[in-house]
Every structure is written in structure tokens, then in C-alpha cells.
Amino acid sequence: MLRILGRPSSINVRKVLWLAHELGTPFVNEPWGDGDASRKLDDPAFASLNPNLMVPVIEDDGFVLWESNSILRYLATSRERSDLYPVAARERARVDQWIDWQSSDLNPAWKYAFLSLVRHAPGYDDPQALATNAARWNDFMRVLDRQLQQTQAFVSGDTFTLADIPIGLSVHRWFSVPIERPRLDGVVAYYERLSERDGFRRYGRNGTP
Where do the GST C-terminal domain residues begin and end (predicted)? Predict the structure, then answer.
């Protein structure tokens, strides 16, 4: 049984939960980091699995792995799901491009707005900084919209792939955080297309930003 360690409210944990659902892989989710005193991330039992004290972590038949996007790639490859993670170099590179774009460009763009408007974190209450961050976030979403207008389907082409999991969760966050958003028809259609998938309804569009 695949063990997925991490609180299910975490966007990075939800990536792994969604993929496990898509794969049909039996799993158990252990909500480390959810505030339960018995599942704190600095517990030696968890620290021995991930010295960074971050979620998610998986344990798959004795194999331990952390970093959410590495986990996605491993699970798709180990389950021989080339439909989700292609074998051909160029097709795989296109999927990897969008996974890495989500992590390196899109993800940092929402940090201030998310911490300000959802987490209400101390120090994230500057209206100008919030407006600047929201504008930057919207700029990246326009990049995604142009890609989706071209594919008229999923982020890397005609079919659902591994790239749509981190991107799909990011799109849900964009719709969930109360900022001013431009009308992006490609993104709207994509959001509804993803919502036809049971895994996205369970772990993406499930009321959690």
C-alpha cells in the first residue's frame, strides 16, 4: 500500500493524492503537519524520512521519496503510465516544461496574495505589495491562457498528462483567492474540463484553495 504523508489541505500533497487516484493505486494518506501533536513534522519518525521537514513524502514498498513533482514523475513512471508521462523525449520535455514552469514561475507569483488573503499571515498586509503581486500572478495566468487557447484541451496538448495536475491545482487556487482577475476564456474552459475528472473534484476543486 502506498503511503502518502502530509496534510490533505496542502496543495503539494493534493498533487500526489490526485495522481494516485488517477492511477488507481491503493493508498493511505497520513496527515502529517495538520496540527496533531502526534504528527508534527519535527517528529524524529518524520524527520528520518525527509530532513527538510516538509510534505509530501511517500513510502512505496520501502522506497521513500520527497519533493512533490519528483513524486509525480516517479509514480507515473513506476506504474508505466506513458499516457500521463510520455517516453518520447520531446513529448516528455513538453510535460516537464509546464511542470517546472508551475514550480519556478507561477507558484512564487501567488505567494503574497495567498498569504495575505487566505492565510492572513502577519506582515502580508501592504495593499501596494498585494496589488503588485496580484498583477504579476495574472500575467502568468495570461501565459497559461495563451497556451490553452492553442491546445483547446490540456496544457501540453490534446490529452491529460502529468502537467495538468500541478497546473490544474494552480488554476483552482487562482479562482479561489479573492483578487481581481481578468476574463481568460481558455483558463475557464480548462477549469471546467478538469472538473469532469473525479480526481480533480476530490483533490482540486474541493473547497480548499
Answer: 88-209
Q: Supply the pTM of this predicted model.
A: 0.96
**Contact between residue 71 and residue 64 where contact means Cβ atoms under 8 Å apart:** no
Q: Taking CA 32 as the corner, what is the angle to CA 65 and CA 47, rounded to the nearest 5 degrees?
A: 55
> At 4, phi and psi to the nearest 5?
-115, 110
Parallel, antiparallel or unpaired: strands 27-30 and 57-60: unpaired
Clarify whether residues 194 and 103 are in a common domain.
yes
189 and 97 within one domain: yes
Q: What is the pLDDT of residues 9-45, one digit of tens each?
A: 999 999 999 999 999 999 999 999 988 888 999 999 9
Segments forming the whole domain that contains residue 57: 2-79
CATH number, domain of 45, equals: 3.40.30.10
Task: Say yes or no: 33 and 124 in one domain.
Answer: no
Q: Are strands 57-60 and 2-5 parallel, antiparallel or unpaired?
A: antiparallel
